[in-house]
Specification:
By secondary structure, the chain is an alpha+beta fold. The chain has 4 helices and 7 strands. Helix 3 links the parallel strand 4 and strand 5. The longest helix has 15 residues. The structure holds coenzyme A. Coenzyme A binds next to strand 4, helix 3, strand 5 and helix 4.
Length: 158
């Protein structure tokens, strides 16, 4: 049974294991960054029959804006709707707390790196719209153009 909850004490090693199990997606330094970011930002985990099957780390940027810093699903469980379930829960919680727009940065489509095609398809199928390409993006390794995506949780025009 799937359940989404906030990060609890003792969960971080499971998140690190998920990150390390996705070497096609995350460079070696990411596990440490995820660990650090869980300390300062909101983190949701997806539990599957007691195991941690995925997580999302979200930074609040303003009263109505947030950024998904990290999100991943256990590699053996990918493509089964777990990411969709987790993201839906996270976006609902953010909307309830007043967030209107959520950003995520991923590898831009102008890169020919195949693994991230599925990632971009995931964001796009879940309603995220690409609004910019930034290359180079400060803090990202050279040769990794960033695709900037956003999803609206409610209208912002007055
Ligand atoms: C991206 C990720 C979080 C999605 O979670 P998931 O549980 O695999 O995704 P779901 O099963 O809920 O949804 C699958 C969707 O992703 C896309 N997708 C997944 N695998 C795909 C593949 N091999 N080819 C094309 N599209 C694919 C599809 O659009 C699919 O949506 P649809 O069923 O509506 O068409 C997960 O696959 C993951 O951890 N990827 C590696 C790490 C990563 O890329 N993190 C995000 C960095 S920005």
């Amino acid at each position: 049974m799937l359940a989404v909850r906030r990060l609890a004490a003792g969960d971080v090693p499971a998140l690190v294991t998920i990150v390390r199990g996705l070497p096609d997606y995350f460079t070696d330094d990411v596990a440490e960054k995820v660990e650090r970011d869980t300390a300062g930002h909101d983190t949701w985990v997806l539990a599957d029959a007691g195991d941690i099957a995925g997580f999302a780390v979200v930074a609040r940027k303003s009263a109505a804006g947030a950024e998904i810093l990290w999100m991943a699903i256990d590699p053996v469980r990918r493509g089964r709707g777990h990411g969709t379930a987790l993201l839906g829960h996270v976006l609902d919680d953010l909307a309830t707390s007043g967030v209107a727009v959520v950003l995520v940065k991923t590898l831009d489509r102008c890169s020919d790196y195949v693994p991230y095609r599925a990632t971009r398809a995931f964001w796009e199928r879940r309603g995220f719209v690409q609004v910019a390409t930034i290359d180079p993006l400060p803090g990202w390794q050279p040769g990794n153009p960033a695709g900037i995506y956003a999803v609206a949780l409610r209208p912002t025009r007055t």
